[in-house]
Amino acid sequence: MNKQIDCVGEICPVPLIKAQIQYKKIHHGDSITIITDHSCTSQNIKDAFSKLPCVVEVEEENGIWEITIKKFA
């Protein structure tokens, strides 16, 4: 399952908080994708999730970031 969260127009820490809330709800193998136009969000999410059992991938196109967090444990 992949849950998408549209955070376009929202600034930090709102996207990070939404990601943390949804991360607690997903299961092993599931992922969430945060869509944002706020450039610092990707680094904030990478930092916050760095010690958790997950992989964080970031793609940027035309000023829109898609940050995917895949839970693996």
From TrEMBL:
**Mind telling me which CDD domains this protein's record contains?**
SirA_YedF_YeeD
Q: Name one GO molecular function term.
A: transferase activity
For this entry, the protein name equals TusA-related sulfurtransferase
Please tell me the species this chain comes from.
Anaerosolibacter carboniphilus
Swiss-Prot/TrEMBL keywords: Transferase
- Pfam family membership, one: TusA
- Homology family: Belongs to the sulfur carrier protein TusA family.
Domain UPF0033 span(s) in chain numbering: 5-29
